[in-house]
Fold this sequence. Notes:
There is one protein chain. The protein is about 35% helix and about 20% strand. The protein contains nine helices and nine strands. The protein has a four-stranded antiparallel beta sheet with strand order 7-1-8-9. It has a three-stranded parallel beta sheet with strand order 4-3-5, with helices on both faces. Strands 2-6 form a two-stranded antiparallel ribbon. It is globular, with a radius of gyration of 21 Å.
Amino acid sequence: MATKKKTTSAAASKKARPEFDTMKLHGLNEAVKLVKDSARANFDETVEIAVALGVDPRHSDQIVRGTCPLPHGTGKSIRICAVVSDAKMDEAKKAGADIVGNQELVDNIVAGKQALDFDRIVATPDMMVVLAKAAKLLGPKGLMPNPKLGTVTPDVAGAIKEAKAGSIEFRAEKAGIVHAGVGKVSFDEKHIAENIKTVIDALNKAKPSGAKGTYMKKMTISSSMGPGVKVDLGSVAA
């Protein structure tokens, strides 16, 4: 019995190995095809990119952060919490916000009475003083609104609609790596590639003044459960 289990386990392990050279750089279109072909999960996996940048986010002049509206969306339903003034409540609701409130909502968040079951907070500028009391709770989860991300704005409806349409937030982590979901494996290959090009373009535009040497070093794409495929960055710009 033990031998049979070992053989079965070895067979499963062999099947899980990628059927391509993991060390080779692939053109973007080829890489996208490999990612789609390698997806084996019984759900619609997210296509993810990891881009290594030549920055050190510990320095204020090397921070890379922003938002990027994907031309073909993310394939994910985004829940929006709008913290707005009374005058903007109806506007936020009509734009599609899932949770709308002001002082009382923030108090409930701080007290643990409001679950953080949303992906993004959009706020009007006048509500940031109120939201400050929840900063220690929201900040570590990446939920604190920020003017640079377009989530603190008088144009509440525009920010909500953009997020619902498939706008993503990106930020370079400690090692200078940006992770982002760029669609689902069920998407057309062309649409995934176009979403990736849009993110790369946004990263280039967000290049900080303190970045020295090679800014964009390498990129890998994969599905949620699949192997990583190395991408030739030259093919992304082409």
